[in-house]
Batch of 4 targets.
Target 1
Amino acid sequence: MSPFASVTAFAVAAVLAMAPAFAQKMGNDDAAAMKQLAQDNLNEIAAGKMAASKAQSPDVKQFAQKMVDDHTKMLSDLKSLAQRKDVNLPDNAGVKEMAQGKLMERKGGADFDREYMQHMVKDHEKALDAAKNTAAKAKDPEFKAAVQQASGKIQEHLQMAQRISKSAAAGSSSK
């Protein structure tokens, strides 16, 4: 998951609850951060879909599907905020991430599960740091509040990823 991926989904839900009914322009830095969050969601959705179909462990499959579901919702919410703020978001996963996905597709079984979950732990650790930095720098109050609220969900994803990663590293599945 990219640094801003988890931030995006849950940030948007909070933003929508606070958003005024009229469109407001967003500053360039906030707009760039929003675009990165959308890209990260797209990347996470693509990786999650692959893992949901390829993983061996039921826990890894369930986690991957949760990432798809959560990030699809986050992206949808982010698109609504972006429309209100007049920000154009990307539509496809990044080239680098698609290449990484192709490399991951070559793995199988417990090796795939282990590598995917290790990647998820690292990504969510980065996402927590990114959320703090983005919230500290954000100028748009709605965007800032949304990113601050997203930290709890990112922490939840990180804890799940750490737990599953440990069992995947041991070659087992725990519930």
Note: The chain has one domain: 5-17+26-169.
Target 2
Amino acid sequence: MGDTSQMHDWARERLADPGDDLYYAVLFSPRPQRENIRAIAALYTELEATVTHFRDMHVARTKLAWWRDEIERLSAGNAAHPVTRTLAGSMPAAAETALGDMITGMELILLEGPVTDLTTARMKAERGGARLAAALAALFSKDDAGELQSDLGVGIGLARLLGQAGLDATVQKEIARTVQALLATSHPAAAAAPQPLGVLAALAWRAATDTPPARRRSDPGRVYTAWRAARHHLPRKMSKIGA
């Protein structure tokens, strides 16, 4: 009970922003997997904050190294953190592997500079959002999670970059167009994907098609989009772009 309470407190602090798509991905996730989804989403938010906000490279590397060791402890059955103890014994082996890949991706992102063009943005998305998507898909025993969710995960990851401080307006528009193209291409996968990937895809689409394209606030429209996506009703236009 103590671990559950501690994990909820830790996760609530990291998933408290209704402007973050992961907030709704957890809120509308299927109940049997909700605790694991909450744990992975909170862990991803923690890792993302580590590579984004820590100015001291040594401190950021040390934190990532600790999390890498913790994922190894999880695999060995000796998890120490409340979030990994929550995941212990309830995840497929593929999901544990995906968590390790997520740490590796963040280590690579830490070595990169700010987003200055679409190529850099896509690289960050491949190492961030795409690996998050693979970890979430693996929770549902999707053996082909990495391959199946590739474009979908990159689209979700790119959408998380929209509105980033200092992002050039031209680059932002290029990212938004790329998100639309990727999500339109991967619409069948998104429609069939386990939740919360459908919710993340729908909200990424909304972020990329808003005017301005990076509006990241909580509003009834976003809540409704997430609620419908949780019932496998994705935005209609998402399947028509590029058709």
Note: The CA atoms of residues 67 and 103 lie 7 Å apart.
Target 3
Amino acid sequence: MSAIINSHNTKLLTQTETPAKTCNCRNPMLCPLNNNCLASSIVYEAQIHSPNQNIPTKHYIGLSGGPFKQRYNNHMTSLRNENHSKDTVLSKYVWSLKRQNIEYFIKWRIIKHSNTFRRDSDICNLCLIEKYEVLIARDKHLLNKRNELISKCRHHPPIL
């Protein structure tokens, strides 16, 4: 019995925690979020730059309840496939640049981390933070529309 307890104690004391993976990109240098693409429950910003001096930098604010990489892949599908060109405001804008043969670059960054819907508080902080960030962005170059502020939370479980 003492051998079992000693081996159990040794196992617990020598266990090292492996840090959670933050990126699984094949080439970490090309990670959209600086090696943090597996971050979940975030509000993010996409900045669309163009080397053309006549076109201002536009901003898009979005959220991702799951890993950002899934949301990023959905954005990239809508930016590559013209059949999905009307999926988001971001894709509409990028496709308008593509149709005019204007070069562009997109830079992604995390604005805030939060949690999704919680039954005990009946609030989705993630959706609230996204709406707040859209509200306080007084930049006239924001792609988000103000009518997004009244949209229903996607993280709220369905009522049975």
Note: The chain is about 30% helix and 20% strand.
Target 4
Amino acid sequence: MNEFLSGLSSFLQLSIQMGTTLLFGTLGGILCEKVGHLNLGIEGMMLMGAVFGHYIGLSTGSPLFAILGAGIAGLVGALIYAFITVSLKGNQTVTGLVLTIFGSGIANFIGKILVKNQKSGLLPDRLPVAVADCFKPFKIPVLSDIPVIGKALFHQSIFIPISIICAVLLYVYLKKTKFGLDLRVVGENPAAADASGINISLYKYVHILAGGFLCGLGGAYLSLSFLSTWKEGMTSGLGWIAVALIIFSTWNPLKAIFGAYFFGILRCLPFKIQNASLFGIPISIPSQFLTMLPYVMTIVALVFITLRKKKENSPPAWLGNPYFREDR
């Protein structure tokens, strides 16, 4: 029994870790979509955050500079997207796809320089101790000793509580503040917001850039904490799952927490079920099936949410449409 509970606790711990990148990306996407902009560039911003966070962490040995550098890298990607879609009124879908391609290309280019400098001795092979220790899992006394959930919730990297705090603060901001109300009005009816004196372009820029910063943190978690290294294509499509999770969570930051961890469980299954047994009989499940399970469930979740035609499940009314003030 103790062995089962220990295994369950480790499984939940790994599931939360695997869902954290998704949570950051989903929160960034919610901020962007709430203001009326469909950003399909989450994957690219994550990769930019991952490579720049790791590079800066190796170069400076500063955890603060590493995490800020990763967030700013995602923010710069979002700035490019915002300039094209807000200032130039460009197509949001195409711009988001281009941002993913651009972010992947920039990340791979910088990543090659990073690896080259490591081989030549200009950069250390591993993250400096100060950075690695700052982002490795740490125990919260007493709470981490709670059976099952103690290790899962209270023996984690600093990124996990940061992501949860961000989700809660974003929920409060959207639901309980005047600026959050104004933000929702911009996404639902920018003409009405404009008529009431809200600076449409400013709101769009600020929230798109904040969303990009969060996506960059999602990438930083991979390269600074979860894997503690840089690997080409390390997000492995997580940005696209985050796009689906935005809909799955119905644009609600608190629901995004549970959605991200649910998909974290699905991503964790291949590591736990592959060599599992039932009543002493080995369970043989093709690894390919377990690997594709999160993506299959993404499709199922989208279909389920779409069929439930409720107002609270609907996207912002102006999502994906540029706002032309002269058409007001």
Note: The chain has 13 helices and four strands.
